């Protein structure tokens, strides 16, 4: 795997519990970066790499708003029905593979990791050529969601084990964690369709608490997601300006 020193581009990851505003902020940051013209990847290279994407990615679907344009790749996981790996995740989330409790924890980790690994070489090449990727959930999401049933020394060991599964993927230049309370998350989800995880309020609370714990342990940049949407966007922009040396 290429080191970060070998690449011209930038990988920004936006993480957080469900309903923390990841999709909204990803879209806003992508639009701002495209308008600014901060990427150095050539348009012909971008089109060439787009043609190498797995499945029918990036198709336009109800759940996925990914796009590759003007040197900025808006990427999100899961990829759902766009790709082979995404369809396995979709089957898991709609309960087709069984309940969460009936499946081995390592299997669940692998299901999500496989979705991301489909893009490994394209991500590496896009970054090497100077593209900017803004990712709504990346490999860090497994740490937020798959450590909820562990504590103490067992949590520490599991953290390292889960990290090792995706360790071959390119590292993010910055991970932002949008922090909101479990109560705020549940309030925001009242009027929307939910998948298997989102229907389990106990699991939502546990993953929310665990996410903040992981963010602190891993040194992610914690952003108060309960602020006004515009304030969150401006905070992200200011920190990304420093990353890009604008």
Question: What keyword list fits this structure?
Answer:
246 residues; alpha/beta; Rossmann fold; 6-stranded mixed β-sheet; 10 helices; 47% helix
Describe the structure.
- With 246 residues, this protein is of the alpha/beta class.
- It has one domain: Rossmann fold (3-Layer(aba) Sandwich), CATH 3.40.50.
- The radius of gyration is 17 Å and the shape is globular.
Task: Summarize, please.
The protein is an alpha/beta fold and 246 residues long.
Percent of residues in beta strands = 5-15%
Query: For this structure, what is the CATH class?
Result: Alpha Beta
The CATH superfamily is identified as P-loop containing nucleotide triphosphate hydrolases
Radius of gyration: 17 Å
From N to C, what is the helix and strand string?
EHHEEHHHEHHEHHEH
Main beta sheet: strand number and arrangement? 6 strands, mixed
Mean pLDDT: 92
CATH fold descriptor: Rossmann fold
| Number of domain units | 1
Question: Which percent bin holds the helix content?
Answer: 40-55%
Note the gap between the termini: 28 Å
- Tell me which CATH architecture applies here: 3-Layer(aba) Sandwich
Main β-sheet, spatial strand arrangement: 2-3-4-1-5-6
User: How many strands?
Assistant: 6
Give the overall shape, derived from the CA principal axes: globular
Model regions low in confidence, pLDDT < 50 over at least 5 residues: none
Structural class of the secondary elements?
alpha/beta
């Amino acid at each position: 795997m290429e080191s970060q020193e070998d690449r011209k581009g930038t990988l920004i990851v936006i993480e957080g519990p469900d309903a923390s505003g990841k999709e909204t902020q990803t879209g806003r940051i992508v639009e701002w970066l495209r308008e600014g013209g901060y990427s150095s990847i050539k348009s012909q290279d971008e089109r060439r790499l787009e043609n190498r994407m797995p499945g029918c990615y990036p198709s336009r679907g109800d759940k996925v708003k990914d796009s590759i344009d003007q040197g900025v790749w808006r990427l999100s996981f899961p990829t759902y029905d766009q790709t082979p790996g995404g369809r396995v995740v979709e089957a898991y989330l709609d309960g087709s593979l069984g309940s969460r409790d009936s499946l081995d924890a390592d299997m669940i980790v692998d299901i999500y990791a496989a979705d991301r690994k489909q893009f490994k070489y394209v991500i590496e090449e896009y970054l090497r050529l100077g593209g900017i990727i803004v990712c709504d959930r990346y490999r860090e999401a497994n740490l937020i969601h798959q450590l909820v049933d562990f504590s103490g020394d067992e949590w520490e060991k599991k953290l390292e084990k889960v990290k090792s599964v995706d360790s071959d993927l390119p590292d993010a230049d910055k991970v932002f964690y949008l922090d909101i309370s479990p109560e705020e998350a549940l309030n925001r989800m009242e009027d929307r369709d939910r998948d298997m995880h989102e229907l389990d309020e106990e699991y939502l609370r546990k993953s929310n608490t665990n996410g903040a714990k992981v963010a602190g342990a891993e040194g992610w940049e914690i952003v108060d997601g309960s602020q006004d949407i515009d304030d969150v966007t401006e905070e992200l922009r200011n920190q990304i300006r420093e990353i890009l040396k604008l």
